[in-house]
């Protein structure tokens, strides 16, 4: 028998306003019908026997969120973040699908062996659906076609070195190497790029003040992003049949480059992260290395243009770049190394909080529910080729729902976070928007105040040919 989900505030995303109605879901987790009025719901209930009716009353019921930028560091660094904890955190934040980055795990997802290690480790542990990016590094060109054929969402690379030991496992690629590789790959693939390039004359850190945020910030100016985005937009215009995606942009100085490139017909999308939209360099106290990330958090004056770019569609996606680490690498243990911004691992933990962070801040910039839907549901699905069954409430789509109260507030505390490591720059902040339930393919994977059941998430693998894109869920 079918399941029935009811709410007075169903947000489809395809319409401006809420509907007061219901969603009929088949036993295999597919949406059979959307009912748009209470009268239609009453008629259905009178004439049909459902297996279960879930009435969320005044809660917002919208498509499940999709995060395309999550570092799940298992295998190899499960203590940083493993599949079980990461997907629990995702579910508690209203996310029904997440896409894993190829870095940080051992081995990274740069070979077929690395992808198999990821999928075999994930299977049976995940509470939401999970897909994978493949990694593109200088010496793995012979692996790329196999990774794409095997089901990665696309290929991800970096134009700047990251912290050790990950830099040895996932080295940066030059734009010249990237161009040469692109010439050998089929069209209609996605190339996702961490958009920072090294400066010709690097800026030295202030070694005398290692526990001051400014000592780190000065080493990664906006010019690093400008250089990288200029290089990628040039490649995007040369390879117009390939889709380029700019990851975790922090600087508003790159927005005109993106707008111009899109206007010239390139297949280019771009994302920013909740921390760039909500946190400011001026507010970061000494030793608070949980704020360190790359690119860095910039000044408050940087933020309004980023919000405006989301409103206009210049920035397409909001994604977490969730990258927690243990207290040692984050320089959060007591002793001499505590609070050293120059040595701390660059990564922010926020996967569970993304919806609440964005909702707390967006309305002051003139954004609303439709912008959350666009940047956290629809566009992420399009980026990863999931748009035929994810990111929308419509007949034939997966019954993936985020059920939340946009008017309810809460204070962030470490004990409420389900990620493997609890340190986050949002501790003690008061946020608005509380997720009460998360449904993946008709299964209630998260319900507030209740324990998790079985891990029923599935692995998403993208099957590609030159003209056809198919997905299998295993």
Kindly estimate the percentage of residues that lie in beta strands according to DSSP: 15-25%
Mean pLDDT reading: 94
The total of helices stands at: 13
How far is the first residue's CA from the last residue's CA?
Answer: 24 Å
Indicate the CATH topology of the largest domain.
TIM Barrel
The Rg value, from CA coordinates, equals 22 Å
Question: What best-fitting shape do the alpha-carbon axes yield?
Answer: globular
Structural class: alpha/beta
GO molecular function, one term: zinc ion binding
Family: Belongs to the metallo-dependent hydrolases superfamily. Allantoinase family.
Subunit structure: Homotetramer.
Cofactor: Zn(2+)
Describe the overall structure.
Keywords: Hydrolase, Metal-binding, Zinc. InterPro entries: Allantoinase, Amidohydro-rel, DHOase/Allantoinase_Hydrolase, Metal-dep_hydrolase_composite, Metal_Hydrolase. This protein is an alpha/beta fold. Helix content is 26%, strand content 22%. It has two domains: 3-61 and 397-462, Urease, subunit C, domain 1 (Roll); 151-384, Alpha-Beta Barrel (TIM Barrel). It has helices at 38-47, 83-92, 112-122, 141-150, 166-169, 175-182, 213-217, 222-238, 255-263, 274-278, 303-312, 354-362, 369-383; strands at residues 3-10, 19-25, 31-35, 52-55, 60-63, 65-70, 95-100, 129-132, 134-135, 155-158, 190-194, 243-249, 268-272, 317-318, 401-411, 430-440, 443-447, 460-464, 469-473. Residues 466-474 have low confidence and may be disordered. It has 13 helices and 19 strands. Strands 1, 2, 3, 4, 5, 15, 16 and 17 form an eight-stranded mixed β-sheet that branches. The protein has a six-stranded parallel β-sheet with strand order 9-10-11-12-13-14. It has a three-stranded parallel β-sheet with strand order 6-7-8.
């Amino acid at each position: 028998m079918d399941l029935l989900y009811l709410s007075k505030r169903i947000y489809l995303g395809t319409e401006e306003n809420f509907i007061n109605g219901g969603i009929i879901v088949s036993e295999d987790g597919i949406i059979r019908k959307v009912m748009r009025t209470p009268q239609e719901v009453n008629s259905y209930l009178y004439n049909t026997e459902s297996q279960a009716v879930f009435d969320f009353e005044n809660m917002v019921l919208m498509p499940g969120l999709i995060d395309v930028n999550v570092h799940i560091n298992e295998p190899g660094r499960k203590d940083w973040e493993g599949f079980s904890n990461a997907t629990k955190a995702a579910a508690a934040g209203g996310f029904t699908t997440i896409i894993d980055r190829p870095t940080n795990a051992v081995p990274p997802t740069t070979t077929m062996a690395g992808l198999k290690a990821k999928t075999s480790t994930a299977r049976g542990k995940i509470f939401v659906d999970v897909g994978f990016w493949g990694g593109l590094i200088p010496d793995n060109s012979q692996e790329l076609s196999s990774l794409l054929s095997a089901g990665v969402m696309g290929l991800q690379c970096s134009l700047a070195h990251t912290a050790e030991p990950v830099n040895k496992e996932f080295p940066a690629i030059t734009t010249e190497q990237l161009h040469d590789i692109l010439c050998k790959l089929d069209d209609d693939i996605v190339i996702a790029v961490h958009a920072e390039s090294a400066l010709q004359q690097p800026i030295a850190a202030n070694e005398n003040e290692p526990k001051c945020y400014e000592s780190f910030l000065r080493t990664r100016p906006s010019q690093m992003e400008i250089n990288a985005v200029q290089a990628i937009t040039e490649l995007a215009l040369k390879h117009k049949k390939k889709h380029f995606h700019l990851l975790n942009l922090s600087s508003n100085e790159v927005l005109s480059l993106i707008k111009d490139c899109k206007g010239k017909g390139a297949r280019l999308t771009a994302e920013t992260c909740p921390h760039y939209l909500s946190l400011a360099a001026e507010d970061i106290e000494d030793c608070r290395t949980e704020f360190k990330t790359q690119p860095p958090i910039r000044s408050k004056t940087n933020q309004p243009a980023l919000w405006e770019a989301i409103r206009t569609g210049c920035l397409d996606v909001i994604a977490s770049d969730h990258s927690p680490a243990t207290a040692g690498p984050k320089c959060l243990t007591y002793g001499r190394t505590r609070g050293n911004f120059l040595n701390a691992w660059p990564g922010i933990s926020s996967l569970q909080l993304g919806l609440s962070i964005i909702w707390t801040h967006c309305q002051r910039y003139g954004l609303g529910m439709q912008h959350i839907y666009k940047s956290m549901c629809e566009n992420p699905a399009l980026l990863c080729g999931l748009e035929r069954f994810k990111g929308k409430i419509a007949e034939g789509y997966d019954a993936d729902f985020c059920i939340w109260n946009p008017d309810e507030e809460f204070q962030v505390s470490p004990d409420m976070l389900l990620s493997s490591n609890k340190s986050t720059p949002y501790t003690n902040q008061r946020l608005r928007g509380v997720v009460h339930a998360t449904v993946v393919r008709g299964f209630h994977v998260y319900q507030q105040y209740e324990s998790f059941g079985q891990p029923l998430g599935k692995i998403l693998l993208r099957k590609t040919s030159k003209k056809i894109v198919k997905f299998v869920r295993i």
